[in-house]
Amino acid sequence: xxxxxxxxxxxxxxxxxxxxxxxxxxxxxxxxxxxxxxxxxxxxxxxxxxxxxxxxxxxxxxxxxxxxxxxxxxxxxxxxxxxxxxxxxxxxxxxxxxxxxxxxxxxxxxxxxxxxxxxxxxxxxxxxxxxxxxxxxxxxxxxxxxxxxxxxxxxxxxxxxxxxxxxxxxxxxxxxxxxxxxxxxxxxxxxxxxxxxxxxxxxxxxxxxxxxxxxxxxxxxxxxxxxxxxxxxxxxxxxxxxxxxxxxxxxxxxxxxxxxxxxxxxxxxxxxxxxxxxxxxxxxxxxxxxxxxxxxxxxxxxxxxxxxxxxxxxxxxxxxxxxxxxxxxxxxxxxxxx
Length: 338
Ligand SMILES: C[S@@+](CC[C@H](N)C(=O)[O-])C[C@H]1O[C@@H](n2cnc3c(N)ncnc32)[C@H](O)[C@@H]1O
Prior knowledge:
Rossmann fold; Lipocalin; 18 strands; 38% strand; disordered N terminus
């Protein structure tokens, strides 16, 4: 899906840290990239003290330092619908620019974590300079040991394999409706809810000149059997039943309307908002129906629109669905088991 097959890529194959000695011992792609970016990818401490390079540890669950261009930071915050009330966490925060920009612009609170102590020190100093140190803080900490349960928005600019290692943690810890925004890399078969490609001429890594920004909205778990009624113009409400499977935010399954089979055309779970699009016969013809219903526990109360979306009419009267049978949603290996 992502056309970017990056130069910015480690050759990591195991979860164990890899110790390398000096530049000659660095893994090839990283070495090539380091050459391309004139040393930008070395941890800041190693850049400041060349003699320390011999002790550089490149972990296969980490990513090198490359700052996100400001234009991309701005787009990440826009796409993440970041607002004043959000708590923002940048995983691998580098010089802190994403959290600091968000705090300056929206007045929100946030933290960043990074393995690199020198970058953390720099980020805290910059937060102070920007006048936001009362609202944001940066910690030298492994992102995999960082609690995400309070985050409304998580931002990441990390290698693809690190994104994938973080995916179960994001899905297990973030509340439904929390947003994850990434720069350049995605989560494979957890498809994004939104994405954009930006021209960034000064960018030299990944796909030079381009940046990809992706948004995911953490889905609630709506799989199972839902029963209720839908309003019908000029007539009594009709019983409806959905049997839903859920893979990340997408539903598949079946629907019956008035005891007769309809066809589930599309269903998704955006945070805790269920959207179910189905065809059911009206006057002998299949007609498009769309239910939009926020889920609260095992109840979903919402609205019905009937007809093609451009000419659809909202049918007055509430749709009330109750879940009589719960199934686990598939949210990737670890979180799906939750
Ligand atoms: C590509 S940089 C992104 C910096 C910043 N988020 C930005 O977009 O400008 C990735 C950062 O992640 C940090 N990092 C890599 N693995 C990490 C881990 N497991 N825990 C915390 N930080 C990590 C690196 O030290 C590096 O500073």
